[in-house]
Amino acid sequence: MLEKNLKLLAKKSPSLYQRILEYHNQENSLSKKFSVKKGKKGYHYLQENYNEKIRIHSSYDPMNESKAFLERYKEEIETHDFILFFGAGLGYPIEVLKEMYPKKTVYLYEPSIEIFNYLLNQFDLQKINAYMVGDLYGDIQNILKRDVLVLILPIYQQYFQKEYEQFLSQYKKFLQDWKINKTAIALYQTRWMGNTILNFEKTYRTPCFLDTKIKEFFQNKSVLIVSAGPSLNFEIENLQKIKRDKTAYIFAVGSAIHTLLAHGIEPDALFSFDPSAKNMEAVFQPILDKEKNIPLVFGTTIGFEILQKYRGKMAHIHINRGWLSSYLFQVDSLDIVQDSPTIAAVLLQVLLKLNTKNIIFVGQNLALFDKQEYAKAIMQYKDLGSSDEIEKFPTTIGVTGEIVYTRESYLAMKSVIEFFIKVYDRKDIINTTIGGAKIEGTVFIPLKTVMEKKLTEPIVEENWFEEIVESTLTEKKKEERYETVFSQYKNLLREKNRFYKRITNIQDCLVKIGKALENNRMERVENLFGVYDDHMIKVEKNPYYIHVIMPVIEGVLQQESDRAKTLFEKHLTKKQLATEKWKLLTNVIDMIEKAHFLMEPELRFIQAVVDEETKKYQTNMEKEV
After folding, report:
1. What is the pairing mode between strands 395-397 and 403-405?
2. Which of 93, 99, 106, 107 is nearest to 155 (CA)?
3. What is the Cα–Cα distance from 260 to 619, expressed in whole angstroms?
4. Contact (CB, 8 A) for 482 and 329
5. How many CA atoms lie within 13 A of 4 on its CB side?
6. Which of 540, 550, 553, 586 has its CB surrounded by the most CB atoms within 10 Å?
7. How many C-beta atoms surround the C-beta of residue 625 within 10 A?
8. CA 529, CA 517: separation in Å to the nearest integer?
9. 67 with 61: CB under 8 angstroms?
């Protein structure tokens, strides 16, 4: 079992896999708190080494004990699709839950790596959808977007009381940050997909910035992430010197480009991913007006208006919300960057994936400074008003330990940046932002000092973008890209046809359910709901649905799911409940069909690129013959 679980861990959670390997290497020298014992009925249980009375699981029948525990929460479990266990010992509670409710999604937060290691020897991890050990970071972050029921065994509540309180504190904080981001997600949902499709040609014809060659290039480099915070005003002379002496690569994010250009500093690259149309006016229009040829590294979901007008050199990064492009290009999951509420967090991920030696934040205030939110030369630059008004803002700790005023949205951005720093376990990232909010995991050092101690030699190579980045898209790479995209797109079209046939079958099924309800044939209604479920399970596994339809309607689906849960609170009769369920499912299928009719014509933009490349490919083949 251990070998099987380790293989799964290596695939699904490489960072946790590495932690387990390190634990195994040190296991003999560690002082263990628990031992595995065997009970009278043959079940294993955990017993504390220093107090035999403390046991995780019954020493007689832990399966029966788990059933009794879950029965106490039966009503809550039945109304939740997602269950999170705070600790599960050797896995008995999860085993029983999956027997009782095989369709439930199960997550595990285990506060003890020692106990998790014992679990690996006994329990099949495939029964758990996501797991983490010791902190609230990693794969399980996605559960915060769900309506999750948290279950904790009584012994865990007693024995791991401090860890449980920390868990709840962090969990609540993530929920707050997620609520802030929810508005943006609802707003950008359709644009994310529309941008991905309309940007497909540019994505296809530009190099990926996370190519192996680029990773090798940046391993020993220093890079500045220059943001548009008000402290940027104090670093102009320093940045001018860095640019002149070529001691670090200057990467601008968002509207920081305006302050840099206003002082004659052309960054080595501009990074942008904002899917909204306003990004053109706020960031790019001044660049286009000045006809600057600054390399642009864009996220695949960037507002399509930008790529249609930008004439400079370009490279792309795959954003996790560009579902379709990641599918067509068959992008390695390790090379997909997570969408974030701030472009600085996106660029940070890129530099972390590149294993960049020195990552240095400049102008990353995440707080107000002298009544300002932005550096000068930026359109949003304005005085925020009187001190009385500013005192209404939330506060946080500053880089030198002082209290600084901020916004909830900035705190959410700060939290995301801190999250990625912790995930990648980097302790050497430098924050030079004067008067900014303290970013956990970074070290505050004034930029002048950084220049004197770390940025002492010229490292920026002339024409680096052409010679390093653009050169990665070789003829062989182009051919491989064509073959991958061609194959994936043809498969997508086949799956599209299967998807629509399945939707037609579901519509027929819903019509039959409606007639059965009219005739009060409740047994037939139940059977037909089972038929619906079988069809829908296949739809939800269909690649066309996953990568084209679901991303467009994800927000609305969540609303319908929330509405469905309220039906059980209305004390309806069996027929009333079935009728409401039928109406809800009919709405869902209508919405899915509308999304299909909306998105199907959009695929012509991808079809045009595939057709053009196919002609080129065939012409080249004929020449070779």
Report:
1. antiparallel
2. 93
3. 46
4. no
5. 9
6. 553
7. 5
8. 12
9. no
Q: Of 114-118, 346-350, 369-373, 470-474, which range is least confident?
A: 369-373
Strands 44-48, 34-38: pairing kind: antiparallel
- Residue 385 scores a pLDDT above 70: no
By the 10 Å C-beta count (0-12 exposed, 13-18 middle, 19+ buried), 228 is classed as buried
The pTM assigned to this predicted structure is 0.69
Identity of residue 333: S
Confidence grade of residue 380 (pLDDT, cut at 50, 70, 90):
very low
Tokens for 484, please give them. Answer: 């991958």
Burial 555-564 (b: 16+ CB within 10 A, else e): ebebeeeeeb
For the segment 271-284, the average pLDDT, to the nearest whole number, is 79
If you search the block for the tokens 């990004």, which residue do you land on? 279
**Tens digits of residue pLDDT in 224-260:** 999 989 999 999 999 999 999 999 999 999 888 889 9
Q: Which two tokens stand for residue 451?
A: 């220049």
Selection from 464, 215, 220, 238 nearest residue 362 by Cα: 238
End-to-end CA distance of the chain: 54
Task: Tell me the C-alpha distance between 237 and 235, whole Å.
Answer: 6
Q: Quote the CA–CA distance of 302 and 313 in Å, as a whole number.
A: 16
CA angle 544, 106, 66 (to 5 degrees): 155
Residue 549: which of 510, 609, 498 has the closest Cα? 498
CB-CB contact of 591 with 553 (8 Å): yes
Closest to 106 in 3D by CA, of 134, 159, 70: 70
- Give the chain's length: 625
Per-residue pLDDT band for 387 (boundaries 50, 70, 90) equals: low
| Alpha carbon 560 to chain centroid, angstroms | 23
Mean pLDDT of the 199-206 span: 94
Can you tell me which residue has the tokens 């007689």? 60
Least Cα distance to 481 among 320, 328, 323 occurs for 328
The backbone torsions φ and ψ at residue 251, rounded to the nearest 5 degrees and listed phi first, read -110, 120
Q: How far is CA 538 from the centre of its chain?
A: 25
pLDDT the model gives residue 396: 92
Alpha helical stretches, state H, 123-160: 154-159
Give me the pLDDT at residue 214, please.
96
Q: What is the largest CA-CA distance in the chain?
A: 84
Question: Which of 150-154, 213-217, 376-380, 390-394 has the largest mean confidence?
Answer: 213-217
Q: Which residue has the tokens 């560009």?
A: 322
Residue 339 near residue 232 (C-beta atoms within 8 A)? no
Please enumerate in sequence order all residues whose Cβ is within 8 A of that of 366, keeping only pairs 6 or more positions apart, or say none: 229, 406, 410, 411, 413, 414, 417, 436, 437, 439
Q: How many CB atoms are closer than 10 A to CB 600? A: 14
Amino acid at 166: Q
Better pLDDT: 159 or 142: 159
